[in-house]
Amino acid sequence: MTMFDDAFLEARARAVMPTDSAHDWWHVRRVWRLAQRIARTEPTADMRVLQVAVFFHDVMPKRPEGGHAPVTAAWLADALAPLDAPLLLLERAAEAINTHSFSRGAPPTSIEGAILQDADRLDAMGAIGIARCFAYGGARGRAIYDPEDPTNSIQHFYDKLLRLRDGMHTAEGRRLAEARHRVMEQFLAHFWREWEGEET
């Protein structure tokens, strides 16, 4: 199956990308690499559905009152008009996008959605995940750690990042998550020793 042109999708996605460094174009590229790696172990995945879903998973349209609106096939069709992509493909991509978010807590309804969710969450883990956590928190004025402020960045590991490993849907996602989870555990162990002045 011939996939869509990455350069075209990149140009369209960049035009509506968020500006924070934790959800920038390089995040999309990393998720796409991870998604392709996972998809090699999931032969039933439709790579064109997955490609569109990955490239647009963090560029959801805004509601007038703020926040994200669900992505629709019509919105994708407008963004990708020159591709003349089949409506069913765009509907499947939209469904994968709409179930990928950790905060929504929605389970994926397709193998493409499962791969997108796993790949996106893997990019929130390990060394990259640690960097993204502090980049995101710093951009929002959050403390690195403050025991009196539950919005601090270290707390985010316990609220979300350390929970990601156990929510993986694919065998390859679970395998990759193990190593990234250990990196975060090791980082936190070092962090607490340094915070308490107990490093050896």
From TrEMBL:
SUPFAM superfamilies this protein is in? HD-domain/PDEase-like
Instruction: Give a Pfam family name.
Output: HD
Q: Which InterPro entries match?
A: HD/PDEase_dom, HD_domain
Q: Where is the HD/PDEase domain?
A: 20-134
Signal peptide positions (record)? none
Top-level taxonomic group: Bacteria
Q: What is this protein called?
A: HD/PDEase domain-containing protein
| The species this protein was found in | Ardenticatena maritima
The organism that produces this protein has a lineage beginning with: Bacteria, Bacillati, Chloroflexota, Ardenticatenia, Ardenticatenales
